[in-house]
Amino acid sequence: MSVDVKDHWENVYRNKAIDQVSWFQPHADLSMQLIKAIQLPKQAEIIDIGGGASVLVDDLLQAGFQHITVLDVAAAALEKSQQRLADRAQQVNWRVDNILQAEFVPSSFDLWHDRAVFHFLTDPVFIF
Fold this sequence. Notes:
This protein is of the alpha/beta class and 128 residues long. Helices cover 30% and strands 16% of the residues. It contains four helices and four strands. The protein has a four-stranded parallel β-sheet. The radius of gyration is 14 Å and the shape is globular.
């Protein structure tokens, strides 16, 4: 049986509140500690892969980062973040895409963050 990755994640985010998923965290404390430790300039290009409804984008904006991209296969996940951020959502580049198929210009990002995506890619069911 084949599972459509996009449909799976759209369903998760349409049917669960963001605090009902096992990976929910109210703040991205560890990620922010690591990002701050490498002392990126506020103009650094940052991408959060599988960022979905994560609050990392909130924390990055609060810290003053200016070039943030959030990529997720589920538009519903990104919509939750955009609603939460309200007007601040306009400061973020939102991208609905599958990381297995996404194309980027070489050296597009200074920091590539992934907290909860790549471990899913080991199961052939989730790879198209």
